[in-house]
Design brief:
The complex is a heterodimer of chains A (about 110) and B (about 120). Chain A has about 110 residues and is mostly beta strands. Chain A contains no helices and eleven strands. Helices cover about 0% and strands about 60% of the residues of chain A. In chain A, the strands form two sheets. In chain A, strands 2, 4, 5, 9, 10 and 11 form a six-stranded mixed beta sheet that branches. In chain A, strands 1-3-8-7-6 form a five-stranded antiparallel beta sheet, with no helix packed on it. The relative contact order of chain A is 0.35. Chain B has no helices and eleven strands. In chain B, the strands form two sheets. In chain B, strands 2, 4, 5, 6, 9, 10 and 11 form a seven-stranded mixed beta sheet that branches. In chain B, strands 1-3-8-7 form a four-stranded antiparallel beta sheet, with no helix packed on it. Chain B is globular, with a radius of gyration of 14 Å. The model of chain B has no long low-confidence stretch (mean pLDDT about 90). Classes of the chains: A mainly beta (about 110), B mainly beta (about 120).
């Protein structure tokens, strides 16, 4: 079992739908990244969370440290949101990231 | 946010030659950088940890003589793929770690990623 699990692995939705991607982890962490990787390969970090909730435009990320769970939400989804979304955690006392398996999101016009 | 620049974004080389990939943190000092390799539709695979001023730490199964890492300054790490073979063709991406704040006795960090380099060995 991976230390960081994401669900779903693949998600296809219609433009405008509300999207939720989940991340559960089994280790103690100091912080969690939500990353976006487009087909070209570059990775953008949208959020770094250690508690609570953050918002960036149509993206919202939440984390529940006690439940070891984080969610990424996309409101009013758009085809340009199509990408692989990856959750990655910093273990306590470690600068290495442990990556989730990724969620491939496809938004259909 | 902070910027990490990786160069080149694409490179095609002949078998047997060496290729150098650069990773620069443009607006912060990174004592630690990481090099990853990614196969199509797969997750990032950590190759090595690059520490400024000391030898890189390689993950199990990664040949240190094949993938030479030099972290010569606080803003630059390089990965050289030596004597490249077609099986080295892959997507390579670096990340740089930026310390962001102190919390009690611990320091939080944030990772920033380069744009990646697609290497094709022919």
């Amino acid at each position: 079992k991976n230390e960081v699990e994401q669900s779903p692995q693949n998600l296809t939705a219609q433009e405008g739908e509300f999207i939720t991607i989940n991340c559960s982890y089994s280790v103690g962490i100091s912080a969690l990244h939500w990353l976006q990787q487009h087909p070209g390969g570059g990775i953008v970090s949208w959020f770094l969370l250690s508690s609570g909730k953050k918002k960036h435009g149509r993206l919202i990320a939440t984390i529940n440290i006690q439940e070891k769970h984080s969610s990424l939400h996309i409101t009013a989804s758009h085809p340009r949101d199509s990408a692989v979304y990856i959750c990655a955690v910093f273990n306590f006392g470690n600068e290495k990231l442990t990556f989730g398996t990724g969620t491939r999101l496809t938004i259909i016009p | 946010g902070a910027v990490v620049s990786q160069h080149p974004s694409r490179v095609i080389c002949k078998s047997g030659t060496s290729v150098k990939i650069e990773c620069r943190s443009l607006d912060f000092q990174a004592t630690t950088m990481f090099w990853y390799r990614q196969f199509p539709k797969k997750s990032l695979m950590l190759m090595a940890t690059s520490n400024e001023g000391s030898k890189a730490t390689y993950e199990q199964g990664v040949e240190k003589d094949k993938f030479l890492i030099n972290h010569a300054s606080l803003t630059l790490s390089t990965l050289t793929v030596t004597s490249a073979h077609p099986e080295d063709s892959s997507f390579y991406i670096c990340s740089a770690i930026k310390p962001i704040m102190w919390t009690g006795t611990s320091m939080n960090t944030e990772a920033f990623f380069g744009q990646g380099t697609r290497l094709t060995v022919v």
